[in-house]
Amino acid sequence: MRGEIIAIGSELVSGQSLDTNSYWLSQQLTAHGITVAFHTTLGDVLRDHLVVFRNAVARADVVVMTGGLGPTQDDLTRAALAECAGVSLVEDAESVAAIEAMFARRNRVMSERNRVQALFPAGATPLPNPVGTAPGIWMQVERATIACLPGVPHEMKLMFRDQVVPRLRQRGLVDLVTVHQKINLFGKGESEVEAQAMDLTARGRVPEVGITAHDSTISFRITATACTEAEARLLIEPTAKLIYERFGSLVVGEGTDDVPEAVAAQLAAANATLATAESCTGGVVAQMITAIPGVSRSYLGGVVSYANQAKIDLLAVPRALIESHGAVSPEVAAAMADAVRTRLGADLGLATTGVAGPSGGTPEKPVGLVYLGLSTSKGTQTRRLDIGSDQPRDIIQRRSSKAALNWVRLTLLEKR
Amino acid sequence: MRGEIIAIGSELVSGQSLDTNSYWLSQQLTAHGITVAFHTTLGDVLRDHLVVFRNAVARADVVVMTGGLGPTQDDLTRAALAECAGVSLVEDAESVAAIEAMFARRNRVMSERNRVQALFPAGATPLPNPVGTAPGIWMQVERATIACLPGVPHEMKLMFRDQVVPRLRQRGLVDLVTVHQKINLFGKGESEVEAQAMDLTARGRVPEVGITAHDSTISFRITATACTEAEARLLIEPTAKLIYERFGSLVVGEGTDDVPEAVAAQLAAANATLATAESCTGGVVAQMITAIPGVSRSYLGGVVSYANQAKIDLLAVPRALIESHGAVSPEVAAAMADAVRTRLGADLGLATTGVAGPSGGTPEKPVGLVYLGLSTSKGTQTRRLDIGSDQPRDIIQRRSSKAALNWVRLTLLEKR
Questions:
Q1: What letter does residue A163 receive in the DSSP assignment?
Q2: I need a surface site. Which of A269, A354, B55, B121 has the fewest CB within 10 A?
Q3: What pLDDT was estimated at residue A5?
Q4: B28/A contact by beta carbon, under 8 A
Q5: What percent of chain B has pLDDT over 90?
Q6: DSSP state of B19
Q7: Which of A16, A37, A358 sits opposite B43 (nearest CB)?
Q8: From start to end of A235-347, where are the E strands?
Q9: Residues near B145 by Cβ (< 8 Å), separated by ≥ 6?
């Protein structure tokens, strides 16, 4: 099956807004076994609609359009589609009633202008819009089965899933299901992970495995297409197992679960508590962990001891220690971790101190140098990170924060 | 002038990657006075190239293409363009030399396959690629002036700016310059700001003014197009002045400057220091302020007193106060602000305590309720925010953190 996507709107074609609808629809159609051959984006110009529609109905089996279904004079999809099909526009009584009801629910009166949203090319089927005023259109023109959807992304997505996919399936245009499984790793670079996974990521392998990196987390995305979801999951299973076996403790979670989610889950499971003392990361560790709902049972709190005086005032780090070793030192990292654990009566105390840049680096202590400290009842350890002096401040803060939390994760993993 | 953008690549048309090149090119062409009528995205299929290219050269004055210029068999732009123009492909000696030199700089040997990147349709002009191996193509076919650029975004952007724009200008296809000025406001909702700016945002006004909202900051974007940049700036000036006068202290900055940047600049200018005590925001206030380089002179640090015990241990907030008023109360917010200011010897102490959700809300203290405390040598004040119980956790944390910092901003503004 050959598919085509048409996005309509002057704001899209002029670059005032990014066309993410086409991107999403491509993924959906591809996942259902339809090969998308073209995306076309055009403005609100009737002549341009006709050229694009006529091309599409002659060359595609499935055409999905978004936009141009609103009540204004700029909204030309209905008129252009009727002209392309050589039919007239007729009013659909049910759609008028549905639009009136939508306005009533919002305590507003439907304007006469909104009636145009109930006009459809003769022979078309209206697709009800449960969350907006613009109904969609379902129609066959020449070779193409056409679905016109509103441009508002959440309306479009809902209608695509609930109405377009079932109709395509019924017509036999869609007969496949694609399933993805994403496994997230932290602790090694992308190229290193990739080198250990050449067999998995080989082109043409079934199921397909891709590697992506985001915010220092490396993800494997396993993709399988089959006639049913269950079959696709069966195809994925052995590959997922292989990744778990091969990468062991590097695996932090699946889907959207990253290092902070893993740490939160482990703390809860171990009934352990964490406290943090941050210098160069300036609150990023705390923010990452408190972003997770319900973490308040495990995360007690912490200190952002940004200035040296704050390390002394809040954590009683001895001034002499800072003066002899410098604030960026394993000794100070250890003292911070110990102090915050003791102060808050936590099971684990985690500390960061480093040079986040862009200024403040020296040859001995360059930008990107970060020391971590981790204190437990069994003792205190430190680690050195070199994020790289060419990295921007936010990357240095985020990467070292994630590495710090990952150390907590590995420590809790060993204990089990 | 009528423009058209063509993006080539199977990874784009299937939704494996988002086509941001078309978006960027649309903005650029529009800014230079060219009306973009179509974007087309297509995969690596020669037949599809020909259909799209033939349409484009018949209907557009300027066509910019990206992608399909690599050395693999999937890269069909050169061949399709030659076929569309009815000419043969010829090797360009200078391009061969440039590609060889690029490989030499990277200490690699050019493969025979890379020679195809030096093939051009007869009559075309090579566009040198200073940062990659794929040269671009500049060519006139029928009505259209065509620029083919690599798909790698940074190569494409550099070549568009340095080579395509000057050539378009030389041909008289580009004769305008568009300038934007973005003014950022914080402290009122988008609809409220919009209601006060109906005259500015009216359609057809010169210069044009748009409103956007991001992360609770409302931005006016003034856009003017003229023959020179200086002329465009002159057109913008009176509108910018009007916005400053009308919105006064709501204005936090221009461009990418938001509330944290404004606070950091004001603290530095006033030679004042800030300390923070966060409960529900869990480090987000600290993270926002420490994201700004060089803020260590003004921001001393703070406490993330997430658990009640942390408020007692780190800030000596009396247990009785928490028990009688609850942790989420103006009394506790005030005590936290006072304590952190005193502990760290700061000029300003800022505190947050609230219910970030999704659970933990009660009828009296619903999700989204946040109290702020601000302590200075002149006394301590509190404020109540109701972010809304339907808002997600991260929005509640970010919005209340920004509102807290905005309070610091307004306080420093008054002092001046």
A1: I
A2: A269
A3: 98
A4: yes
A5: 83
A6: -
A7: A37
A8: 251-254, 274-278, 299-304
A9: B61, B62, B63, B139, B168, B171, B173
d(CA B78, CA B80): 6
- C-beta of residue A120 within 8 angstroms of C-beta of residue A95: yes
pLDDT digits (tens, 9 = 90+) for A14-59: 998 999 999 999 999 998 989 999 999 999 999 999 999 999 999 9
Nearest to B272 by CA among B298, B301, B252: B298
Take residue B360 and report the two structure tokens written for it.
């933990």
pLDDT of residue B73: 85
More confidently predicted of A4 and B109: A4
C-beta separation of A136 from A163 below 8 A? yes
- Give the distance from CA A233 to its chain's centroid: 21
A354 and A326 in contact (C-beta within 8 Å)?
no
Write the Ramachandran bin of B379: left for phi over 0, alpha for psi from -120 to 50, otherwise beta: left
Contacts of B29 in chain A (CB under 8 A): 15
Q: Nearest CB to A30: which of B15, B291, B358? A: B15
Question: Residue B331 is encoded by which pair of tokens?
Answer: 């009394």
Q: Which residues contact B98 (CB under 8 A, 6 or more apart)?
A: B128, B129, B135
> What pLDDT score was predicted for residue A191?
84
Inter-chain contact B306–A296, Cβ cutoff 8 Å?
Answer: yes
Q: pLDDT per residue over B61-110, tens digit each?
A: 999 999 999 888 889 999 999 999 999 999 999 999 998 988 888 888 88
pLDDT exceeds 90 at position B176: no
d(CA A278, CA A124): 62
pLDDT at residue B416 greater than cutoff 80: no
Nearest to A286 among B40, B41, B282 (CB): B282
Element (H, E) at A230: helix A229-247
Beta pairing class for A251-254 and A177-185: antiparallel
Cα separation, B381 vs B383, whole angstroms: 7
**Considering only residues 317 to 346 of chain A, which have any Cβ-Cβ distance to chain B shorter than 8 Å?**
343-345
Q: Which two tokens stand for residue A253?
A: 């979670």
Judged by CB atoms closer than 8 Å, whether chains meet at A302 and B304 is answered as yes
Chain B positions touching A42 (Cβ under 8 A) are 37-39
Label the pairing between strands A136-141 and A144-149: antiparallel
Length of chain A: 416
How far is C-alpha A325 from the geometric centre of its chain's CA atoms?
42
Closest to B410 (Cα-Cα) out of B354, B368, B372: B372
The CA-based angle A119-A124-A128, given to 5 degrees, is: 70
Q: Is the minimum CB–CB distance between A11 and chain B shorter than 8 Å?
A: no
Alpha-carbon gap, residue B3 to B14, rounded angstroms: 24
Pick from A30, A48, A300: which is nearest to B37 by CB? A48
Cα atoms in the Cβ-side hemisphere of radius 13 Å centred on A227 = 1
- Model pLDDT for residues A254-264, shown as the tens digit of each residue: 999 999 999 99
Alpha-carbon distance B92 to nearest alpha carbon in chain A (angstroms): 32
Beta-carbon separation of A357 and B293 below 8 A: yes
Residue A381 pLDDT grade (very low, low, confident, very high; cuts 50, 70, 90): very high
CB A93 within 8 A of CB A131: no
Cβ-based contacts of B343 with chain A (< 8 Å): 313-314
Within 248-307 of B, beta carbons closer than 8 Å to A belong to 275-276, 278, 281-287, 289-291, 293-294, 296, 299-307
> In chain B, what's the furthest Cα-to-Cα distance?
88
Q: Is the pLDDT of residue B410 over 90?
A: yes
Range with the poorest average pLDDT among A126-130, B128-132, B278-282? B128-132
Q: List, as ranges, residues 58-97 from A with C-beta within 8 Å of B.
A: 59
Looking at chain B from residue 161 to 190, which residues have their Cβ under 8 Å from any Cβ of chain A? none
Residue A265 in contact with residue A409, Cβ under 8 Å?
no
Is B385:B216 a contact under the CB 8 Å cutoff?
no
